[in-house]
Amino acid sequence: LVLSNDTALNSLLSKLLQDYLEQMNSSAPSEVRSASSNLEIIYVLMMIGLFGFFTVGVMLTNIRARRLENSRDPYNTYIATDIWHKKDREYFQAKLIENYKLCCVFENHLAVEQPSTQIPEAKSS
User: Fold this and answer.
1) Residue 57: C-alpha distances to residues 1, 15, 26, 43, 117 (Å)
2) For the segment 59-89, what is each residue's pLDDT rounded down to a tens digit?
3) At a CB cut-off of 8 Å and minimum separation 6, what does 76 contact?
4) Cα 79 to Cα 70, 75, 82, 83, 84, distances in angstroms
5) Predicted confidence (pLDDT) per residue in 22-34, tens digit
6) The overall pTM is greater than 0.85
7) What is the rounded CA–CA span in Å between residue 122 and residue 125?
8) Cα–Cα dist 98/16, whole Å
């Protein structure tokens, strides 16, 4: 493409610029933008929904666990009562008395001090 003067070049450049601006201002790109905008909103809503789902799951699990702690479960009832402390104390006392009865002391009559006898001392050489 060979142009003879500056006016033809200016008109060609202005025509290209106008075409480009018309394409940018047309409705087709705005539809594409709105479609991508809708997808972004759906993505954000999905992320918030997943976060909410996991948060509610953790809360419900915690509430259920606390209810089980306060229930009339025999294990929790056993721990809550003070009977096992008394049973342990009685068992410990019975074992102590049993061990005391089994214990005996042997007296070594030769090791008892005898003030009348003299203990020989080793002589140094």
Assistant:
1) 70, 62, 48, 21, 88
2) 998 888 777 666 666 665 665 566 667 778 8
3) 69, 70
4) 12, 6, 7, 9, 8
5) 877 775 555 556 6
6) no
7) 9
8) 110
Q: What is the chain's Cα-based Rg?
A: 49
Q: Are 12 and 3 in contact (CB under 8 A)?
A: yes
Distance spanning both ends of the chain, measured CA to CA: 133
Residue whose entry in the numeric block shows the structure tokens 């306060």? 70
Q: Do 92 and 85 touch, CB atoms closer than 8 A? A: no
* Residue 9 · residue 3 · CB < 8 Å: yes
* Alpha carbon 89 to chain centroid, angstroms: 38
